[in-house]
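Entry 14. Structure prediction run on the chain below.
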Amino acid sequence: MFLGFDCAISKSSQAKIAKELRSTNFQKWTARSIEEIAEYFNSQLRGWINYFGKFRKWKLNRIFKIFNLRLTNWVRNRYKRLNKSYIKACKWLREYKLVNPELFVHWKYGVIDSWPLYNKSRMMGDYHVRFCERFSVKLPLPTWQEIECTSFA
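Output returned:
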C-alpha cells in the first residue's frame, strides 16, 4: 500500500515558483506603482492559491514569504526617504496593508506576514520560563497577578 502522496505543493514546485519570482526582478520596478505590481501578479497569485492551495494553503506560506520579501525590497528601492531601511520598509508595507487589505490576493486570505515585529521579542515567554526552570531558578510572580483590579463605578 502506497501512502506517500501528499496533496500539498511539492518542494520542486515551490522552487519553480521561487525561480519565476526571482526572474521577474520586480523589486527593481521603481517606476511602477504598487497597484501596477498588484495588477501584474494577482492573476498568478490567485492561480497558485487555487491550484496548490486546494488542500493545504499554509504550505504556500514560503512562496508568499519570498514574494513579501521582494515587495519589501521594492519599497526600499522605490521610496528613498526610508533610507533603504528594512524595518522602515516593513512598517510602511504593514500600514499600507491595513489601508488596502485586498490589494494583493494573498493578503485577502490572511497570509501570515513575513515582516519582522518591531519592538517585540521573537522569543515567547514560556521559553524563558523553561530555560530558567532547567537551572532551578525561582521566578517572581508577574505583577499583573499581584495587583487587584477595582472597578471605577
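The longest helix spans residues 34-52.
Filed with the rest of this week's runs.
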